[in-house]
Amino acid sequence: MSPAQRLHIPSDRVERLHYIKRIFSDAQGAGLGPEWAGGRLSAQKKLNSIDVVAYARNHNFLNGAVTHLSPYLRHGCLSLNEAFSSIKNRFGLEAETLLTALAWRDYWRQVWYEKGDAIYSEIEPPKVAIGYAPLSDAIVQGKTGLPCMDAFVNDLLTTGYVHHHARMWLASYIVHHLKMDWRAAADWFEHHLLDGDIASNHLSWQWVASTFSSKPYYFNKENLGRYTGERYCANCKAICPFDDSYEALSERLFNQTLAPNAKQYPIKLLPMRAPSSFKTIAIYVHDEMLSAAHDLFKRPFPKFFVFDPQLYGHWSLNRLQFVADCLSEMDGVEVWLGDTCEVLMSRGVGQVITQDTPNRKIKALLAPFAPKWQPEAQLVDVKISTKRLKRFSRYWEKVGPLVLGS
Ligand SMILES: Cc1cc2nc3c(=O)[nH]c(=O)nc-3n(C[C@H](O)[C@H](O)[C@H](O)COP(=O)(O)OP(=O)(O)OC[C@H]3O[C@@H](n4cnc5c(N)ncnc54)[C@H](O)[C@@H]3O)c2cc1C
Known about the structure:
Blueprint: E1 5-7, H1 13-23, H2 40-48, H3 52-58, H4 70-74, H5 80-91, H6 96-115, H7 137-140, H8 147-158, H9 164-177, H10 182-192, H11 198-209, H12 221-228, H13 246-254, E2 280-284, E3 303-307, H14 309-312, H15 317-328, E4 333-337, H16 340-346, E5 349-355, H17 360-366, E6 372-374, H18 392-404
Parallel strand pairs: 2-3, 2-5, 3-4, 5-6
Antiparallel strand pairs: 1-4
Helix pairs in contact: 1-15, 5-6, 6-11, 6-18, 9-11, 10-11
Bound molecules: flavin-adenine dinucleotide.
Residues 59, 66-70, 73-74, 101-102, 104-105, 108, 164, 167-168, 171, 189, 193, 195-197, 200-201, 204-205, 208 line the site of flavin-adenine dinucleotide (FAD).
C-alpha cells in the first residue's frame, strides 16, 4: 500500500469530482449528477419531498413515488430512527407502507449483527436448484440483449441507483435463469450501488435465491410489463425468457439437479496489528456516520475519516464521490487516503470512539486503538429474539405494533 496521504476535499462539487477522479484513478464510473449529491442537506430535501399516499399506491412501479432515501440512510446522513420518526410524526398511519419498507432496513441490519460474516454465505440450504457459475461479461457490461435487464445494469453502472423491483428482477434473472453465483453478483451490486450495504444487499440476494426465504423469487413477462409500463417490452425483439406462466417457468427453472455447493464464501481476514501505545483520543468516522449532526461530533476530540483501500478499494467512482460529497459538509473532519492503522498512529491516536457497526472489517481495523463503540439506535429498544429474525414477518409482528403504535 502506498504511504498515507492527507486529502483536502474541495467545497465546489465540480472541482470535487475532478479531485476524486484524480485520487481514485482506478475506480470505475463517470461520476454522479446533481440529483444524487451526497450529504445531509440533500437527504433532508429528499425526506421533505416524500409523498406517502402516492408511495403506498405505486411504489412497485418503476416510475412510482419512491423516496431515493437509501444512499443517505446507508451513510448515516440521516439515521433510520430520525427518518422513521419524521415520517410517522408528519403522516401517522397514512405512511404505514413506507414505514414498513423502512423497517426492512432495520431487520436486515439486526440479522447482520446477529449472524456476522455468516451472511456472506448461504444461511439456509436453497429450496430449489441454484447454480454457481461466475458472472458473465454480458451481465456486468449490460449486454445480454434483453433491453430490460441491460437497462437495469446501465442504471447500476451510471447512477448507482436501481429501483427495488428492478433489483429483484435482475437478481432473479442472474440466479434462477443464468444459474450464476448469487454471492459474486451481490459483491458486484455492492461495488456499484450508492446504497451498497452488506446486510440489505447480501440478504436480499439470499431472499431471491431462497437461501434466506422459504421459496425462490421469480417473475414473468406480464409482471415486468405491468410495473414498467411496457417500456422495455413494447419494442423488444429478443426471445423473452420470462414469457410464460408461473407454472411453466417453475418447471423450466427449478426442475433440474445441480451439484450442491457447500463451500463457505471466502472472507479475507485483515492482519492482526499490535495495540497502539499512543495517548490521543479521537473520533473515528466510518462510512455509516457521514453527518455533521452526528452526536459524537459534539465531543472535543480530533476526527478522522480514512479512505482505506481495505474497505473502499472495490467501490465505484460514484460511491466514492457520494462519500466525498458527504465529507465536504463535515467541517473539522481530517480526511486521509491510506492504511487506517498507519494514519491513526501517525496522528498519535491510542483510543478511538465511534458508532457501533456490524461490519467486522471496520472492527478489525480499529482493534489496535482500544475502540469504544457508541451503540447504534435500532427501531425499538428491545432485544429481538433470534427466532424473530428468521423471517421479516415474525420480526414485524413484534416490532410493528411497538413502532406504529397500532
Ligand atoms: C437484490 C437486492 C439488493 C439490494 N441491495 C440493497 C443495498 O445494498 N442497500 C439498500 O439500502 N437496499 C438494498 N436493497 C433493498 C431496496 O431495493 C432498496 O433499499 C430500495 O430500492 C432503495 O430505494 P429507495 O430509497 O427509493 O426505496 P423506497 O422504496 O423509497 O424505500 C424507503 C426506504 O426503505 C428501505 N427499504 C425499502 N425496501 C427495502 C428492502 N427490501 N430492504 C431494505 N431496505 C428497504 C430503504 O432504506 C429505503 O431507502 C436491495 C434489494 C434487492 C432485491
